[in-house]
Amino acid sequence: MHATDIIAKKRDGDELSREEIEFFVQGYAQGQIPDYQAASWLMAVFLRGMTDRETLDLTMAMAHSGDMLDLDDVAPITVDKHSTGGVGDKVSLIVVPLVAACGMPVAKMTGRGLGFTGGTVDKLESIPGFRTDLNDAEFRAQIAEIGVVLTGQSADLAPADRKLYALRDVTGTINSIPLIVSSIMSKKIAAGADGIVLDVKVGHGAFMKTLEDAEKLAEAMVRLGTEAGRRVVALISDMNQPLGWAVGNALEVKEAISTLHEGGPADLREHCLVVASEMLVLSGKAVDTSDALTLALETLSSGAAWQKFKELVEAQGGDVRTIEEPERLPQAKLIEPVPAPRSGYLAELNAVEVGQAVVELGGGREKKEDPIDHSVGVVVHYKVGDLVQKNTPLFTVHASDEEKLAAARERVLAAHTFSDRPVQRLPIFYKRVAE
Ligand code: URA
Fold first, then answer.
1. How far is the CA of 25 from the centre of ligand 1 (A)?
2. Which of 69, 107, 181, 385 could cross-link 425 (Cys pair, CB 3.0–4.6 Å)?
3. In this model, does residue 423 exceed pLDDT 80?
């Protein structure tokens, strides 16, 4: 087999065989196929697409390019969740301990933020001492012992995806449904969970800008996961405005802590309860979503979810005092509330602009190796549809210096638009997709 023939076949719109796909993925992962050929092949896939069968073969080839975790010996059934990425998305910090506290083990590997979207690993690392680099033995021991683990993705998990994703990032081939599906699902399948809840974001702040595209992505992932023998449900959720109020690492941890204490923003709380319920049904812990919701609500209000979060932090070396007394978490030097320039209904709160403002404050990264400042960020005080009074605090900037604070203030102000007439609130979820 030759890489050039496989590239030309896809370029001409023909269907690749499983052997051809495996040859290409293995060849690239092992360094026998160079970047320029892989880039050309990615563009051919981007332009020509893939059939469901090709996408499944690509996903499995990528999953098998590294370790395939089998957790059966330590936890017979595990569930996982995955979000396609967003601004203010701290759902994993709440849902993972919540579902584990309901008695269903959750073993989750998670990522760092890139560009305007945040990552759970960065948020967790704002807790002093918290380790996100557990090795395989530690991962297994912890899931067996306390039924919950939340760590960075191991280097041996779907290494072909890591290489292909980096290449896609610089070749204009990110936004392709078969490539996104295979990238996400190869990691989820390799990580070993039996049930997977996918949170597919739609809106300005998401890969998928339209509901139609988000539906296509969600349907493709559910079909593929099911064919791969996993139980999969996808929820399509809004990412036009940030989720919750806080955007920025330590600020999001604080918001997650208050949500675990039954406080926190209403949209975040509802989002978490719905995702948790789906995870509980998929894993068989509840018979239906209403039964699951009751269980999740009880577990949240009894304090059991919060206790599980503390156990998780302690097990992974985090300083528990900083989550018991969140004022001990990293605090920005400058904290400035910004008054609303006018009264009116909030018509838009652009998630990308808020996310980008936080990156510029130092709370996110443009390049993978950039360091981040956990203390900085933005807390919005209104959501789309709310009536705002002139001069009341519209949002608060947490910054490390005056110059950055001024830039964030301007950017986040411009991300808000107002209307004199009532504006409809944005839904939290648009659709549920299951087989
Ligand atoms: N997240 C991933 O892991 N891969 C993609 O291709 C897109 C989002």
1. 17
2. 385
3. yes
